[in-house]
Design a protein that fits this description.
The structure holds 2 protein chains of 2 kinds. Chain A is mostly helical. Chain A is built from 22 helices and 2 strands. The radius of gyration of chain B is 25 Å and the shape is globular. Classes of the chains: A mainly alpha, B mainly alpha.
Chain lengths: 489, 241
Amino acid sequence: MKEWLFGEAADTPGALFGIGYNFDVCLFAATETDPGTACGPLLVGTICILLLFGLAILGVRVAFAAGIAGMVGMIEMIGFGPGVSTVGTIPYAKTSLYALSVLPPFILIGFLAYHAGMTAKLFDAARKWIGWVPGGLAVATVMAQAGFAAVSGASTATAAVFSRVAIPEMLRNGYNKRLAAGVVAAGGTLATLIPPSAILVIYALIVEESVGALLLAGFLPGVVSALIYAAIIILWAKVQPDAGPSVGGYKWGERLKALPGIIPIFFVAGIIIWSIYTGKATVTEAGALGAFVILIVAFTQGMRFGGLKDALMETARLTVMIFTLIWGIFIFVTFLNYSTVPQAFSQWIVDLPYNPYLILLAILIGYAVLGMFMDAIGMLLVTLPIFYPAVMALNGGDYVTRETSAFGLSSTEASIWFGIIVVKMAEVCLITPPIGLNCFVVNGVRPDIPLGDVFKGIAIFFIADVIAIAALVLFPDIVLFLPDLMSPG
Amino acid sequence: MSDATDDTKQPKPEDGFGQLVWTLDRGLRWPEDILNLLAAVATMFLVLIGVYQIVVGMRDLCFPIPGTYPSDDWWVAPSFGFEDYCVPLINAPMFGYIDMIELAMPILAIIGIAYCMRMGTHIRMDLFIGRMKGRPLWTIETFNALVMLIFALLMARFSYDFFDDAFTLGDSTTDAEIDTWPSKLLVPLAFCLLAVRLMVQFLGALRLAANPALPPVGVIVQKDIAEQAQEEIREAMGSTR
């Protein structure tokens, strides 16, 4: 079949540059004292990583940049015929997996959530129950956003809908503009940790961990983040009482009346967690039932067929985008494993004469810097193939026990723990300049609040996030408590 | 969407080359729209089948038989052979459910790829290219489209081999033994359509690189971060009400 297009393709390694397995070609040529650096496969790996970043910076879509760099590398490593044949199977092989079918229902839930009118009801309930604390409306906003996160995995969407619901209410009650805008932008980031979260599903697939374990693991860190936000708001309102007056005076009857409206949210969160714990339904089935329930609620709230069609079209589009990234990255990962770059990088990291926590800190700072230029999902996918094996090796490798590991975690635990930390890290980048998309979203919905004020308002929540990440690093049990309950022993 | 390529009100350009790109762009839209609609319908089916499996199929859900349960945590029972302690409520799971979902995944995940490209949904880093304007911008865009076009053609060509093997050898799923080739055929088809879309984007960018003053046709017009934010808002809340 191949001959009609390519004739007798050169099927020997080193087909493009002639360095695939030529260990005499090195990045820095060997001298008498130095054995040389990055020879043969390692050199190809280095070149293709640079190619990936070069293409991405030029504006080639990230998924394609990864696919192209991976394909070039594969051709170089194993020859044209075998290289492109291997690459050609990857889009099908890496998407036709049942585990991945969880993504479309999760994404659909997010697109329907606004139409289901959940935002206003959540905010109303939260205000009646906790409005009495200092900075009550802002704390209520954070709690309502944490609740909304249970039906939405998208950070920016959560920030957008709450900008419309919560900010007017806060400003009417004399809240500081910066506090009002900051809390909405920051609270949006809770969506990616509290299930259902698309980004955690993608992480689980890339590192071959249990999707259920990752989804459960995100729950407590999400709650802890929300509580830290709430604590910071209360502190702010205590120091500066004008910034966030409390709103009280609700009777118990009013409070109880606010509850039935938010039942669907608890149902969706409950069904997903139930399915993971009991295994009586797959996560896809649970997500499907959740989407169905939200759909029914949305219809009762006046959504029309046209709205459903729009939500489905958007879901399909976003699904394709995510899957394209997944298989594009897998092409690159397949090549990287041939090139031995991840192994070499891991070895280098392990050999560094520093404390493992210091190295982890350096990696996280690297993520923070990269996050200033890149979208969260893209950043995670591009960096994981290199950083994930390195962090696992740093912890002590694949078969390490808690006692002998660097972070006191078994390899599975370390992998879940690192996932939650990097996802949280990627989310922090959604609220930091220059491309803190959540801040732009708040400013987009409320043009009367200048962008500068949003960024100033967010500063204190950035500190809260740093505290939260430090807590997750130092107390891994926050992450691992729920997944550990799942697996007996 | 604020992409120029999806602005149906955009008039047909006056220059001949622009008209060619415009015509190609419009001609491509209906297959792209139909494939994405198919993906949307498949998403709805995925939801409905999931609901069936969980509610009607009641795959593993069962009544605990009073007095036979070893502990009161009956809801975490599956790890110890629950059928000893309870009876199935309704047990009619769909045969080959997982196989069918796996075979349907290319419909959900791949066939909309050209539509996604037209809409500019595939993410990219805007930091450098976002600051470019005029001829330099369109020259780089021409290069980008060309690189992706070559990649799409190679992918179409060699994912076809994967289909061809399955077709010739009669590959089927392990459980329900359904043929896999129709599902595998969707991949090269999607890449072919993507290649045509990238061809249009390549021509559109080439035209603007030659004369940046022309109205853009068949290309994705750069959005800055504030416009992206507007788009996120629209996606989350529908039309700006």
